[in-house]
Design goal:
Layout: H1 2-30, H2 32-57, H3 70-168, H4 179-182
Keywords: Coiled coil, Signal
Signal peptide: 1-17
GO biological process, one term: regulation of lipid metabolic process
């Protein structure tokens, strides 16, 4: 929404630049100091124009560039003031838009960096949690293996004890029906 408002504002300012430029031109031409400055700037522009034209035509050497008449000088100065104002307004609009876009990009990059850092932090916490869980599981496995070994030892001991007790039991009816009678 803000971009739309800015674009509309820039468009309105561009449209107002020409009439404002004409009003600025009148002010400059009526203000004595500004008028002198603009007229001397117009004389400089006239000299540059003559030098550029001569260079484009292939003419070499120094040439005398006379001062413009007061009427032509005032006309060029007023045009220069008006166009300078319009150019200044356009330049300000472009610079403002550039700065606005740059700030938006910086903010976007900052948000992306924050999101990336949050993801990295979460991944780091998850890795640490998994590492801790893995260590706990390894300890639990070691404890369970110890228990299994103890149980196997107890079972083996109980089996041996049972076998010894069975060997010591007297056989029924002379050993014909006892467990040893069936052993080969």
């Amino acid at each position: 929404m803000a971009a739309l408002v800015f674009k509309l504002g820039a468009l309105v300012l561009k449209q107002l630049a020409k009439p404002l430029g004409a009003r600025f031109e009148k002010w400059v031409m009526n203000h004595p100091q500004a008028r002198r400055g603009v007229i001397s700037a117009a004389q400089v522009v006239h000299r540059w124009e003559v030098y550029i034209t001569r260079g484009a035509e292939g003419k070499e050497g120094k040439a005398f560039v006379g001062a413009m008449t007061e009427e032509k000088s005032v006309e060029l100065a007023s045009k220069l003031a008006s166009e300078g104002f319009v150019l200044g307004v356009g330049t300000l609009i472009v610079l403002f838009e550039y700065d606005r876009n740059r700030r938006k990009e910086i903010e976007k990059k900052r948000k992306e960096d924050a999101e990336r850092q949050a993801i990295l932090d979460q991944a780091s916490r998850e890795r640490e949690r998994l590492r801790t869980e893995n260590v706990e599981q390894q300890e639990l496995i070691a404890e369970l293996m110890g228990r299994v070994e103890r149980l196997e030892a107890l079972v083996t001991g109980a089996q041996q004890q049972q076998q010894q007790q069975q060997k010591k039991k007297p056989a029924m009816w002379g050993g014909f029906l006892g467990p040893r009678a069936l052993d080969p």
